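for the recovery benchmark. tokens below, seq after
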């Protein structure tokens, strides 16, 4: 079993990564492999709704979106991590995931996600996490992915990775 962990932060090893790394360690303890996919800090083109993906079988913009979809084909679950930017997911996260899920649906490859468990985690200095989780969970529900919940809200707080590790 393998779970793909999506890091939607522009900071490769920042607070969102720290939270995802904690999750990866817990998965490893349970015998589950994982891989962290970092969206990076380069501009992500938004979905143009051009529908070229319906004919191409992938997004017409050939970047990390198509790479992510190829990796997801080999995974059994997905965890999306995003920092909170102005009470919602980072712009890169939204642009990236809109293209991932739209192109999979339009190209008839929705089974890449269907019925695979999904979960989201939000990372914030202070607030905006519940709105972010709501936003991210919609990718799962629209794609028939069961949402894996936790004992409490799936969020961490802190301005630095060290702060996140202290968040109880």
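predicted aa per position
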């Amino acid at each position: 079993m393998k779970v793909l962990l999506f890091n939607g932060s522009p900071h490769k090893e920042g607070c969102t990564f720290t939270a995802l790394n904690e999750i990866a360690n817990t998965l490893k303890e349970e015998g589950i492999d994982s891989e962290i996919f970092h969206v990076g800090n380069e501009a992500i083109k938004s979905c143009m709704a051009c529908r070229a993906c319906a004919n191409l079988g992938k997004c017409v913009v050939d970047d990390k979106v198509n790479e992510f979809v190829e990796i997801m084909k080999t995974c059994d679950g997905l965890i999306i991590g995003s920092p909170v930017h102005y009470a919602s997911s980072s712009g890169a996260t939204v642009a990236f995931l809109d293209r991932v899920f739209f192109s999979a649906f339009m190209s008839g490859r929705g089974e890449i996600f269907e019925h695979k468990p999904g979960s989201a985690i939000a990372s914030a200095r202070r607030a905006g996490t519940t709105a972010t989780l709501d936003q991210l969970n919609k990718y799962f529900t629209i794609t028939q992915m069961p949402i894996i919940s936790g004992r409490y809200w799936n969020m961490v707080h802190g301005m630095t990775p060290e702060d996140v590790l202290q968040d109880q």
